Write the C-alpha cells for this entry.
Amino acid sequence: MIRHTVRIKNRAGLHTRPAAGLVKMVTPFNCEFTIERDGFRINARSIIGVMTLAAEQGAELFLEFDGPDEAAAAEAIVAYIERGFDEEV
C-alpha cells in the first residue's frame, strides 16, 4: 500500500475536466485507488465520487493506492495533481 498527501494547486480546483482526467488516468492500472478529504473517503475510479470531494485550490487530499502496480499508478497520479492537472496553476 502506498499513501501520498497532495494539495490542489490549480485555481479552479478539482472540477469536471481534471476529475475525468484522473479517472481516465487510473483506468489501465490494476490497483485500488481511494482519495480522502476531511474524513470523507471515495473510490477514485468513480467520476461522481471524485466530484463529490469539491476540492478547491489549496485543499489537502490523502491518496491511497493498493495493488500489483500501485507504485506506477501513484507516480502517474501524484505527478498529474502536482502539475495542477496540466492547467494554469
Q: What stands out?
A: The first helix runs from residue 16 to 26. The radius of gyration is 12 Å. Residues 2-82 form a domain with the Histidine-containing Protein; Chain: A; fold (CATH 3.30.1340.10). Residues 19 and 51 are 7 Å apart (CA to CA).
